[in-house]
Specification:
The complex is a heterodimer of chains A (110) and B (119).
Chain A (H helix, E strand, L loop, with lengths): L8 E4 L5 E6 L11 E6 L6 E4 L13 E6 L2 E6 L8 E10 L2 E4 L3 E5 L1
Chain B lengths: L2 E5 L3 E2 L5 E8 L7 E7 L6 E7 L4 E3 L7 E6 L4 E6 L8 E7 L15 E5 L2
Parallel strand pairs in B: 2-10
Antiparallel strand pairs in B: 1-3, 3-8, 4-5, 4-9, 5-6, 7-8, 9-10
Chain lengths: 110, 119
């Protein structure tokens, strides 16, 4: 069970948009829509921000959106704000009732 | 509002057993999926396994036969047991709830507890 591949870091200026990719295989990301995304600030527990590829829970701004194409899921954050600076992790169902996280991406707001 | 709180020893000796408890308040353990997720210092999250109220469990194959997740409904607690620990098991351990039908999304999470494996 290999970790999903995410860029180690991305950056953007306030107001800009950034996209974080999450690449898996046809056995995980490409096989289902059970892809979720989590935001983690330093020293804190992760926070759920997207489920089923693109569904936002209540309380998460619509600046956060998700999509998927083939074996790659993506998280897009538009209108970047300083408080968006955090680590972001994707997670996918990997078959056989197991789940796998991505390697994490550090977002820096310049 | 459901809240989760992990607790247990912060230091475990190599080859011994790590035991943690996740206390659930503001809601019942019944019907939900409960997972343990860990994060070695400075590294990525790793899903360890889940327990469903129906009694079904599934574990990360990388942990092989070392892991057991169980629940105590009378105490509203979810437990983690990891045997034969090594330094590689040093991590912050989180418990998280899923839904009644699917393991994810993981929400909410506990605040996490750091476990160091060292003699």
């Amino acid at each position: 069970q290999s970790a999903l591949t995410q860029p180690r870091s991305v950056s953007g200026s306030p107001g800009q948009s950034v996209t974080i990719s999450c690449t898996g295989t046809s056995s995980d990301v490409g096989a289902n829509n059970y892809v979720s995304w989590y935001q983690q600030h330093p020293g804190k527990a992760p926070k759920f921000i997207l489920n089923d590829v693109s569904k936002r829970p209540s309380g998460v701004p619509d600046r956060f959106s998700g999509s998927k194409s083939g074996n790659t899921a993506s998280l897009t954050i538009s209108g970047l704000q300083a408080e968006d600076e955090a680590d972001y992790y994707c997670c996918s169902y990997a078959g056989s009732y197991t789940w796998v996280f991505g390697g994490g991406t550090k977002l820096t707001v310049l | 509002q459901v809240q989760l709180q992990e607790s247990g020893p912060g230091l475990v000796k190599p080859s011994e057993t790590l035991s943690l408890t996740c206390s659930v308040s503001g809601g019942s353990i019944s019907s939900y999926y409960w997972s343990w997720i860990r994060q070695p210092p400075g590294k990525r999250l790793e899903w360890m396994g889940y327990f469903h109220y129906s009694g079904s469990t599934k574990y990360n194959p990388s942990l092989k036969s070392r892991i057991t997740i169980s629940v105590d409904t009378s105490r509203n607690q979810v437990s983690l047991r990891l045997t034969s620990v090594t330094a590689a098991d040093t991590a912050v351990y989180f418990c998280a709830r899923g839904t009644t039908t699917v393991v994810t999304p993981f929400h909410p999470w506990g605040q996490g507890t750091l476990v160091t494996v060292s003699s």
